[in-house]
Design a protein that fits this description.
Elements lengths: L2 H61 L7
Length: 70
């Protein structure tokens, strides 16, 4: 086998490994993006809960009569 053929085979082998690595990285990035989207949804739900609790708390404070010692 000539040196040129050996180099071509070596390059093809490296390319094959790079293709596999690229596919693995793509899967990791896709998985992380899905996780980020789930976390953003959960965060939005928590923000809404906090806002609702604050609103409920503010409404409750204004409707309660003052304590007897005032």
């Amino acid at each position: 086998m000539s040196e040129t053929q050996s180099l071509i085979i070596e390059l093809q082998t490296k390319l094959s490994f790079q293709d596999e690595l690229l596919e693995e990285l793509n899967q990791v990035v896709t998985s992380q993006q899905q996780q980020i989207m789930r976390l953003e949804t959960a965060f939005d739900a928590l923000k809404l809960q906090v806002k609702t609790l604050q609103t409920d708390n503010n409404q409750t404070d204004t409707t309660e009569p003052p304590p007897p010692h005032y």
